[in-house]
Amino acid sequence: MKPEEYASMLAKAPRDGWVALSEDESRVVGSGATMEEAVCAASKQGEQEPVLVKTPKEWGQHVL
Amino acid sequence: MRLNYRAYPADEASKTAFHEDVVWWPVVPVRLVDQRVQVKTKSFHAIVDSGSSVCLFHADFLKIFNMKLTDGIKGSLGGIGKAMGIPVYYHDIHILVGVDWKIGVRAGFSEDLSVAGILGRTGFFDAFHLTFDHSGHPPVLEMKRTEHKVVH
User: Fold this and answer.
1) Number of folded domains in chain A?
2) Looking at CB atoms within 10 Å, which of A26, B7, B91, B109 has the fewest?
3) Domain presence at residue A15
4) How far apart are CA B9 and CA B78, in angstroms?
């Protein structure tokens, strides 16, 4: 997956929550307000080893 | 270990100002492991941030370990803005980097963190030699372990 495609995939995912990606990080397999919800949603999709991303309220430039 | 920076969505201002459709971040796939090395979290992206004095993680991870957030050492986390700091609680955990690098750190946990994790100077930068190379596209993060802080 190209970097731009990866960013586009995340841009379409729910914000201000947790997103679970497939183990190869090629698709969104779950999401939720909490990490537990996202992991549970991924499990229902058959993904036992999701990669988790915390999505911000707004994407863009951040100073951490 | 050499890792390309990851591309994250850019906002309209970023696209206009920097003519980039994405924002590049140096992230490392990690897992957290409890003190007894019995439970580990799912893999997640943590941002390598030399501007952070400590390692920080979202409080949701503590639930995996059945650890109570407020049992940690209470502190406050400030940023560059004028806003008041967010509450943070320090706990001792292990960070699993890749498949075979495990480091013990005292890390801050907060419910108000907008990202999953931040790998800061104390605990992470003293465990690895880190090189941030922005001369290419995409930028590259290179990590080499130091011997004294890595726990196996």
Assistant:
1) 1
2) A26
3) yes
4) 25
pTM: 0.90
More confident residue, B84 or B127: B127
Q: Provide the pLDDT confidence category of residue B10 given band limits of 50, 70 and 90.
A: confident
- Residues from chain A contacting residue B114 (CB–CB below 8 Å): 54, 56-57, 62
Q: Peptide bond before A56: cis, by omega within 30 degrees of 0?
A: no
| Owner of token pair 């100002």 | B17
Q: Which residue of B has its CA nearest to A21?
A: B44
Q: Do A59 and B45 touch (CB under 8 A)?
A: no
Do the domain assignments include residue A48? yes
Q: What is the 3-state secondary structure (H, E, C) of B2-57?
A: EEECEEEECCHHHHHHHCCCEEEECEEEEEEECCCCCCECCEEEEEECCCCCECEE
Cα torsion A34, A39, A44, A45: sign = positive
ipTM here: 0.89
Domain containing residue A11: 3-55
B49 near A CB under 8 A:
yes
* Structural domains of chain B sorted by starting position, each given as residue range(s) with its CATH number in brackets: 28-151 (2.40.70.10)
